[in-house]
Specification:
Elements: H1 3-17, H2 27-49, H3 63-75, H4 80-84, E1 87-90, E2 93-96, H5 98-107, E3 111-117, E4 121-127, E5 135-140, H6 141-146, H7 153-157, H8 159-176, H9 187-191, H10 207-211, E6 227-228, E7 233-234, H11 246-250
Antiparallel strand pairs: 1-2, 3-4, 4-5, 6-7
Helix pairs in contact: 2-3, 5-8
Length: 251
């Protein structure tokens, strides 16, 4: 075998043993990697913000929840600091405040208009940016009374604001549910308040309380709702909303 033939065979063996090039990442993989990098940066930011007064009480000291809020806000077009002033976590569910929901919908080009606002009645209307048809919703204290809302503290203190919040949530879901990305309810609907409640610290249980027999179970009630606080108020967050189901309410 000549030296030329030997060199050619060595070249063929080298080519045969070279590994195949790795497949190019798909668009989905690239987007996921980019999201993971954004999540890591958001978590680093959340760790620094967790103990500050800029973070609402429901998120304070919880960098993981703050990270999730920042990422969710980014999908809605909100910047991090705006997100922390716009999202409340009510019983583990993130929800936009009414003013933030209006901003998100209007940012998408949809129109909202406050027609009437008093302590007894709120009328709002809106339409999608590609539609000529206006949709109108109305919330009154009579409607709120049917849901047992008027006995709650915020409804007693500022009924006009709460009526606007309820009308906001219903109207935004009606004309622009696609703009809300999994946060279709305003915080005022889920919690019945305009700010998150701070629960008082509980005293430690005594030995007698720990060893006391369990109380007898309460009789079954034929109602899917859950009574809150033992004061006769029901969790009727959005019973009267057009797309609220009993299963969601019970959750």
């Amino acid at each position: 075998m000549t030296s030329q033939e030997l060199a050619q065979r060595n070249d063929e063996n080298t080519v045969a043993t070279q590994p195949s090039p790795a497949p190019a990442p798909t668009a989905g993989t690239t987007a996921l990697m980019q999201w993971a990098q954004e999540a890591d940066l958001a978590y680093q930011m959340a760790q620094k913000l967790a103990a500050t007064s800029f973070v609402p009480q429901s998120l304070r000291g919880k960098p993981g929840d703050i990270t999730a809020a920042i990422l969710a806000g980014a999908e809605l077009g909100l910047k991090p600091m705006a997100t922390l002033k716009s999202i409340d976590v009510i019983q583990g569910t993130p929800a936009l405040r009414a003013h933030a929901m209006r901003a998100v919908v209007q940012q998408q080009g949809h129109q909202l208009e406050l027609v009437e606002s008093t302590e007894e009645r709120c009328v709002m209307r809106g339409r999608r940016k590609d539609s000529e048809t206006w949709q109108q919703v109305e919330w009154t204290t009579g409607r709120a009374a049917k849901l047992g809302l008027l006995g709650k503290s915020e409804w007693k203190k500022q009924p006009q604001t709460m009526l606007v919040a309820r009308a906001t949530g219903e109207l935004c879901r009606l004309i622009a549910s696609d703009a809300l990305h999994g946060m279709p309810y305003v915080a005022e609907e889920l919690g019945g308040t305009t700010t998150a409640d701070v629960l008082p610290a509980q005293a430690p249980l005594s030995v007698a309380q720990l060893t006391a027999p369990a109380p007898a179970p309460a009789p079954a009630v034929d109602d899917y709702r859950v009574e809150l606080g033992g004061n006769g108020d029901w969790d009727t967050a959005a019973d009267d909303s057009t797309d609220w189901t009993p299963e969601e309410d019970a959750a």
